Amino acid sequence: MAVFSRRNGYNTDKIQFECVSEVLKRRILAAFYKEEFDTYDVLDWTNYTTGIEDMMIEMGVSYTFPKNEIYKQKNAEALQEYVLNAKEWYVIYDFIEKYLRHSDSNKKIKMTTIFNTILEEEAASYRILDGQVVPIVTESELSTIQDAKSTDFDTVNIHIEKALFLFSNRKKPDYENSIKESISAIESICSIITGSSGSDATLGKTLKKLKDKGVHIHPAMEKAFTSLYGYTSDETGIRHGGIDFQNAPSEDAKYMLVSCSAFVNYLIEKWSKVK
User: Fold this and answer.
1) Going by C-beta distance under 8 Å and a sequence separation of 6 or more, which residues neighbour residue 106?
2) What backbone torsions phi and psi does residue 127 show, to the nearest 5 degrees?
3) What percent of the chain lies above the pLDDT cut of 70?
4) Looking at the domain assignment, is residue 258 inside a domain?
5) Are residues 202 and 169 in the same domain?
6) Where does the chain have alpha helices with state H?
7) Dist CA 59 CA 36 (whole Å)
8) CA atoms within 13 A on the CB side of 40
9) How far is residue 272's CA from residue 214's CA, in Å, rounded to a whole number?
10) Which of 78, 186, 196, 243 is most buried, with most CB under 10 Å away?
11) 229 in a domain, yes or no?
């Protein structure tokens, strides 16, 4: 939940998209230091296995093995200087992803919650989902995508994961291919449900076959997703590299990612009731 000043309109800072405030960076680092450096026992330095060494080396930050308090402090200062003085706005988010990647599962869950709280309170238009910083704001959207990339069907999961990765690439987002992967996830689950393959496994065809497997969806919904498929597949569509879609906007990619994830979850739930 937003803090008092933001809830009541006293703090009306705009959502931070493709920019990062100094306060946000310092709060993220403070949470990191509290977890990693404040609790580190210098008398037991032989057990220093948090993955910080690998993270700092991967980021190109000078690292010294922390055999005593002095070296520990040098590492902390080097990392802080690198993150706070970076010219690129996205370095703090790269740091978050690398840190979570080198954390164990319990710490990853704990710090994801802490970092997401900070991102929400500082009006950042990014949240952490499964170790990735993604430009999606609401909790319901995050939950929808998480469910769609964690199904029992690897091909579906892979398409959603690719769509999310392409959409979330802060240096060079690829919205066109993100849209392709999102619609391909629906195509994949429909093919799995109907048992279709080859030329019969297109979304346009498999949507019509769902009822043969006991999965009945409202005609209006079928029409809507058939139209979405047409949006990506006609002669000027994304799948054909149409010139109209060479600069697909982020909002289109976001809509497709969230909507296709929701439809995947919907179809799996409907199918589970008739299997």
Assistant:
1) none
2) -140, 165
3) 82
4) yes
5) yes
6) 4-7, 22-36, 52-59, 69-84, 91-101, 105-121, 139-148, 154-168, 175-194, 203-209, 219-233, 250-272
7) 17
8) 26
9) 10
10) 186
11) yes
What is the C-alpha separation between 147 and 256, in angstroms, rounded? 15
Q: Which domain holds residue 111?
A: 16-128
Place of tokens 């220093």: 48
| Buried/exposed code over 248-257 (b: 16+ C-beta within 10 A; e: otherwise) | beeebbbebb
pTM of the model: 0.68
Q: What confidence score (pLDDT) does residue 16 get?
A: 57
Token pair, residue 157, equals 């999961």
Helix (H) or strand (E) holding 133: strand 132-134
68-72, 99-103, 179-183: segment of lowest average pLDDT: 68-72
**CA geometry: angle at 224 spanning 221 and 230, to 5°?**
145
φ, ψ for residue 246, nearest 5 deg = -70, -15
Structure tokens at 91: 């370095």
Could you read off the pLDDT of 187-211 as tens digits, one per residue?
Answer: 999 999 999 998 888 888 899 999 9
Number of residues assigned to the chain: 275
Same domain, 219 and 250: yes
Same domain, 110 and 198: no
Q: What is the three-class DSSP state of 153?
A: coil
Distance in angstroms (rounded) separating the CA atoms of residues 174 and 12: 31
Residues 106 and 214 in one domain: no
| Closest CA relative to residue 239, chosen from 198, 199, 196, 179 | 179
